[in-house]
Automatic annotation (TrEMBL):
Keywords, ordered alphabetically: Signal
Protein name (Swiss-Prot/TrEMBL): Peptidase C51 domain-containing protein
Taxonomic source organism: Polyangium jinanense
Signal peptide positions (record): 1-27
Amino acid sequence: MNVRGTLAAIAVLAAAVAGTAASSALAQNAHPPARAKQPVMEVIHRIEQRVRTTRYVHVTRVDERAGRYEFDCSGMAAWVLSRAAPAAHAAVMRHNGRGRPVARDYHDVITAAPKNHSRGPWLRVARMADVRPGDIIAWRKPATVMSQNTGHVAFVVAPPQRLDRAGHRYLVRIADATSIPHGDDTRAGRKLSGFGYGTMLLYLDEPHGEPTGFGWFGLPKRVDFRTHVAIGRAVL
């Protein structure tokens, strides 16, 4: 995978445009995620059902009764996992050691987790064929991106879709918090940020290996970056 449009993409991805209030229309997704009975997915669906306003900000402010969800990607991950998978959340908090985990912490904890059956709080998902709703995608910031963010973290909400016979490209439907919408995004066109659903591309050098790059905007716009992408599962 070649890095394309790097200068333009750096400007886009480095932007920290805090969004405005979102309406409950976020719940009306044209491509709804899988409705798995799984604790992580249950919390994400609860956000979808209750959200009235949402913004991408680097603090976490949530009022469920009012439908207010304000956080960044790692803030959302921490909020969801603290309710759905407390042991997995605690492991990331211990790794962080600063009280507020960031995207690179999720990447590093997942990368260090075992690939086989685990008695610990995390399992590393090493094959795209094994990825399922509720799994977490995380990466460290690519070297070509000029940003103070440490990377990104998101939740898989539907089984990945393989795009080529060899298995080098996959479309992945995700839920996350961002100020830069992905492809086929519930936030697009409304000047919204914060919680929502979107679609990304993941690239693999080896069909049975782990992702080695991502396309932030999915298929509609090819802006690709090379970096190790970790996929993990909270062990419940």
